[in-house]
# Entry
Amino acid sequence: MTTTNTLRIGTRTSPLSLAQTDEVLAQLRAAAPDLRIEVVPMITEGDRNKIAPLLSMERGMFVKALEVALLSKEVDLAVHSAKDLPSELPDGLTIGAITKREDPRDVIVNKWGLPLEELPEGARIGTSSPRRIAQLKAVRRDISFIPIRGNVGTRLEKAQGSDYDGVVLAAAGIIRLGRQDEISQYLPPELCVPDVGQGTLALEIRATDEKTRSLVAGADHRQSSLAVRAERAFLKAIGGGCTVPVAAYAVIENDEIVMSAMVSTPNGSQILKRNDRFGINSPELAGETIAKILLSSGADTILGVGVS
# Structure
């Protein structure tokens, strides 16, 4: 049970999760130097099950234990990679803040240090992301994409081993671990649309906890928050998850939300992409609108769902 004078922060135990939590801690302590903070590391279902392929796991497998702890008041705040959060949160929980976005792009790390277009034919690239596989197969059908598990450090080591020639990862995680020198190529968003929320951290709190909401308010980055709200609205409207190749990425330009979205067949043979501009005051409407446009343009057939 939490005490009234201590803010307890739940986090996963991986090196990246702890680094992300440290990033949040720095912001909270800068805003409230006298605040007493306790970090509570936790092992989630996704961390515990190291055998099951990531493709078999739903979005949210890496956050559920933290959400249970929030609801039971064991912690006051949970720090997540925003891309790990499902489109709908459990009743009683909400996102209190979205941090400033780190580089949202995907990257390739490989033993030759080559960009995607120069990789040898048949190169073995590790990734368990349907989104990445579909978009990269559309460019290089000869490459073999092999499932991979492990934290960022483990995957980077595997990229130099005998079973893989390289890996595809999020730039943000590598940068937060200080290993960006190992990146072979940053993939432009127009080639590989990033995952919803990629590069941002979501600070999840209890919806009725106004004290914690006030404490984390200073960590909220307005432009990143608006962008992620639009992206998450797209994810909810399109009905996609970890097992479906969908993606959305938004940026704020002046007073507009500039948004890219993608839906694809798993093998990348059919990809629908859309780019639009929307008013800044309705980020959820922007995400919902671009989802409806894609669904009416054939994404409903690709996803095997009907347009409501």
